[in-house]
Amino acid sequence: MQSSPADPFRDYDPGPYFCELATERTGDGGARDVVRGRIGAIGLDALRARAAAAENDLINLGITFTVYSEASAIDRILPFDCIPRILTAAEWRTLEAGVQQRVAALNLFLHDIYHRRAILRDGVVPADLVLGNSNYRPEMEAFPVRFGTYVHICGTDIVRDAEGRFLVLEDNARTPSGVSYVVENRHLMSRTFPDLMAGVRLRPVDDYGRRLLEAMSEIAPEGVDNPQVVLLSPGIYNSAYFEHVFLAREMGVPLVEGADLVVEDERVWMRTTGGRRPVHTIYRRIGDDFLDPTVFRPDSLLGVPGLIGAWRRGNVTLANAVGTGVADDKAVYAYMPRIIKYYLDQEAILPNVETHICREQAGLAYTLANLDNLVVKPVGESGGYGITIGPRATRAEIAAARAALMADPSNWISQPMIGLSVAPTLTDTGIRPRHLDLRPFAVTGKTTWVLPGGLSRVALREGSLVVNSSQGGGSKDTWVLMDEGEAP
Questions:
Q1: pLDDT of residue 379
Q2: Which residues does 323 contact at the CB level (< 8 Å), separation at least 6?
Q3: Rounded to whole angstroms, how far apart are CA atoms 430 and 410?
Q4: Where is the Circularly permuted ATP-grasp type domain (predicted)?
Q5: Where are the alpha helices (DSSP H) in 271-384?
Q6: Which of 269, 271, 306, 409 could form a disulfide with 358 if both were Cys (CB 3.0 to 4.6 A apart)?
Q7: What's the domain range around 303?
Q8: In sequence order, what are the residues at sequence separation of 6 or more whose Cβ sits closer than 8 angstroms to the Cβ of residue 292?
């Protein structure tokens, strides 16, 4: 990058990594240079002052998540970085098509394993990997679901490697979180950095609530013309409660807890001050185990007794469906290219990161022989917990990972350490490169729509590859540029 002595980018060096702002690529219409120039005109001091104002907005608006530890629960904001990540229209077309393809395959896979199990009989995916999975729900066998859709809201975690290729890191098919930050980050940018955005033609993100409500209405029981949609939350102590409030508000639907609902005559009713009202679609943000104490955990106080029976009778629809956790298991993830090929007869538009399955002898042997060079992950964890990054681990950490692998190989996968792409990020020492990923959100009713952009999570610590909010990561506004001539 060429820069003047006063340019905030004068010391910026992305090193060997693909940089989301600095690396040359076609199709951006000069937007990256425009943004870089405007940041230079603002200057570091003013940039920091405005960034601080933006974070104060997050606090004042109560836009927080909860970090749980053994000793306490701490409410934090998700740190916001004011330098946007920019995706061209062509890049977005690839990402959008790849996510839609993946969601289609996930839904076909889930329908199959809970019905005919053809993919298991044909040996494409090992039967014991699915049927022995802790997230497999026998209660869903032969269970009818509207349009064969199990994953109505999906978050796909995507990274870009040093060559600029997009790779899927994992699927989130249960209750993916973070979409509220996508919308709120855009609002923050509009309020705090209007001069940075002026004249840059971006795909909007404000219609997520409308799109989500449309999908939730489409999947309502057949014959219901004006369905009542609700969002079911575990309550204020849940780490993502702000998002539950946000999404209910964006959809214009009631936010309810288990105690607000009752099942009578295999129908779901909502208690209101004006009496009971029927409920037709429930966007649930409660885990499978806690949904219905008559079917799953009998000690659950979060769910609704009789809910699964009402669903089975076709009187209500749950989104996402119960049992989708099989599809975002990290071991099943390794088979996704084969799953896509099996059901769609297509190659994966977005390839997986190379993955070694430690439950398989060859995968375990390779992982044990190359621990120093691999990232080892537990298949059932999320949030960046339990990961060992071999090239950065101590001898003690490598030894602990080896012992864990030997004790329970089926609980682990390994992957090469990807040199994640970087983006300019405002730090205490100036604008510096920080690694990031992307979580686009797909909403499926009769068809699948993907929110333009998604949540760009950024690892704020220098050199860190862990972007999760629970591990100290932040987020950026993700800009998807319009095609030339495309109407806003």
A1: 84
A2: 110, 114, 135, 136, 137, 139, 140, 150, 288
A3: 44
A4: 84-459
A5: 307-312, 330-333, 336-344, 361-369
A6: 409
A7: 222-315
A8: 300, 303, 304, 305, 306, 307, 308, 309
What is the DSSP secondary-structure string of 206-239?
TTHHHHHHHHHHHTSPTT-SSPPEEEE---TTST
Cα-flanking dihedrals φ and ψ of residue 235, to 5°?
120, -175
Q: Averaged over 129-144, what is the pLDDT?
A: 94
List of residues 6+ apart from 268 with CB closer than 8 A: 261, 262, 278, 279, 280, 282, 304, 307, 310, 315, 316
Reply yes or no on whether the pLDDT at 36 is more than 70.
yes
The values of phi and psi at residue 300, to 5°, are -70, 130
The rounded distance, in Å, linking the Cα atoms of 72 and 78 is 18
Q: Quote the pTM value.
A: 0.92
Render pLDDT for 197-232 as a digit per residue (tens, 0 to 9): 999 999 999 999 999 999 999 999 999 999 999 999
The 3-state DSSP class for residue 442 equals strand
Q: What is the CATH number of the domain that holds 311?
A: 3.40.50.11290
- What is the DSSP code (8-state) at residue 36? H
Structurally, the chain folds into a number of domains equal to 1
Q: Is the peptide bond before 320 cis (omega within 30 degrees of 0)?
A: yes
DSSP 237-248: TSTTHHHHHHHH
Q: Which two tokens stand for residue 473?
A: 């990561």
Question: What average pLDDT does range 482-487 have in this prediction?
Answer: 80
Closest C-alpha among 476, 415, 463, 450 to residue 102:
450
86 and 424 Cβ atoms separated by less than 8 Å? no
What pLDDT sits at residue 197? 95
Name the amino acid, one letter, at 272.
T
Q: Please indicate, yes or no, if residue 449 is contained in any of the structural domains.
A: no
Asked whether residue 205 is domain-assigned, the answer is no
- Residue 371: pLDDT band by 50, 70, 90 thresholds? very high
302 closest CA partner among 250, 227, 244: 244
253-264: pLDDT as tens digits: 999 999 999 999
pLDDT in tens, 187-199: 999 999 999 999 9
The closest alpha carbon to 285, from 227, 228, 241, belongs to: 241
Positive or negative, the CA dihedral 259, 263, 153, 202 is: negative
Of residues 377, 389, 383, the one with CA closest to residue 470: 383
Q: 276 in a domain, yes or no?
A: yes
Residue 85 lies in a domain: no
Give the pLDDT confidence score for residue 68 in this predicted structure.
47
User: Token digits for 391?
Assistant: 């090239």
